[in-house]
Design brief:
Rossmann fold, six-stranded parallel beta sheet, 6 strands, 35% helix
Length: 186
């Protein structure tokens, strides 16, 4: 019997996006999902599934990068802001040598853009993606759209995504369900 393989994506859960003093913080909404993310990561590893951490990386202020005109500098290489937030940092240190845990850099909203994510997933026969992290209406959304266009099954964990824009957050949750056919988990 062939079962679908799953992967949990923890998108951009860094100090700059979550901590109070982060450069582009979601603040309390982002901080409140920490426990859910850790719980899901443990469940996925225990089940033999994958935990993937696509993480935004910027190398200084690049005048040619489209985000430069939209957002303040964030997730800069070798800074506190780029480190994983809170308990996720220690969780990653504890599990980073596990071959089912994969951390990689990304430089666009979608975890698929300019990365090897699709190849990584297909080579491991992963068909089901569970998305968590920040920001619901930016990087989680763009990753979900690309996953949909690559024919992955999508699950969004409502209690494990957050944004600094609550209107955008609610809109994205609806869009995941009605336009991308994603399962929304409470």
């Amino acid at each position: 019997m062939d079962f679908n393989k799953r992967a949990l994506l923890i998108i951009d859960y860094t100090n700059d996006f979550v901590a109070d003093k982060g450069a582009l913080t979601t603040g309390l909404p982002g901080q409140q999902i920490e426990g859910h993310i850790i719980e899901l990561a443990n469940q996925f590893l225990s089940a033999g599934d994958y935990v993937i951490l696509p993480t935004d990386l910027h190398d200084g202020v690049d005048p040619y990068h489209p985000e430069t005109k939209l957002f303040p500098p964030h997730n800069l290489k070798d800074t506190w802001g780029r480190e994983l937030y809170g308990k996720l940092q220690s969780w990653y240190r504890e599990h980073r040598d596990n071959d089912h845990v994969y951390f990689f850099d990304k430089n666009r909203y979608s975890a698929f853009a300019n990365t090897n994510l699709d190849n990584y997933l297909r080579s491991r026969k992963i068909t089901d993606l569970h998305l968590t992290g920040v920001c619901t209406d930016i990087c989680v959304l763009h990753t979900a759209v690309d996953a949909y266009n690559h024919d992955y099954q999508l699950t969004i964990h409502k209690n494990a995504v957050a944004s600094f824009d609550q209107t955008g957050h609610k809109w994205a949750l609806n869009h995941f369900k009605t336009t991308l056919g994603a399962t929304i988990m409470p």
